[in-house]
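Risk register update: the risk of archive-format incompatibility is retired. Evidence:
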Amino acid sequence: MATNSVIVGISKALNYWPTYKVYDDTVEQNLEFPCFIVKLVNSRTLPILMERHQLRQTYAITFIGANNSDVWDVSETIPRVLEEIELDAGIKLYGHNITVTLLANHAANIVVDYVINLKSNELKDLMQSFKGKDTVKA
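Archived output:
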């Protein structure tokens, strides 16, 4: 289960607002408002019992509305929308620590944590499929 699967699950949940566009963090130009921008901001793996691990991921979702009414509507409703997302094959993840911060200029920032339980072999598969964008400098 890769990060991309969680972003797709979040995007499906955000279809609660069918007329609002959903972008990942790679969009640079031509945003259509109102819209959501979804980005993974933190990922950590914690060992639990024997060969099991917990993958804890934090996502930031920026909402940019056309007016304050859009922002208030999303801010009030989005905790319930992100509380449960569905991934491929019907796997459900539950959002924790959902916070909404209202920003200037018709925008809001939403932060949500998802916890994924993995077996050691699933963790290895996940790490082998990871394609990083940055390089390490000496």
